[in-house]
Amino acid sequence: MGTPYPPLGTIYAASLMREEGYEVSLFDVCLRDNPNEIEAILEREQPAFLVLYDDGFNYLTKMCLTTMRDAAFEMMAIAKKHGCQILVNSSDSTDHFEKYLENGADVILLGEGESSLLETVQSFEKNTDLNEVKGLCFKSDNEITNTGRRPVLKDLDALPQPAWDLVNVDEYKAVWASNGHPFALNIATTRGCPFHCNWCAKPIYGQRYNTRSPQRVVAELKMLEEKFGVTNFWMCDDIFGLKPGWVQTFRDELTQENLQIQYKIQSRADLLLEEDNIDALVASGLYEVWIGAESGSQKILDAMNKGTQVSQIKESTELLQSKGVRVAFFLQFGYLDETKEDVDATMKMLLDFMPDDIGVSVSYPLPGTEFYEMVKSQLGEKANWTDSDDLALMFQNTFNQEYYKTLHRYVHKVFRNAQAKERVAKNGIASRVGIKALAKQAYYLPIITKLENELKTLSNLN
Question: Are 196 and 206 a contacting pair, CB within 8 Å?
Answer without folding.
Answer: no
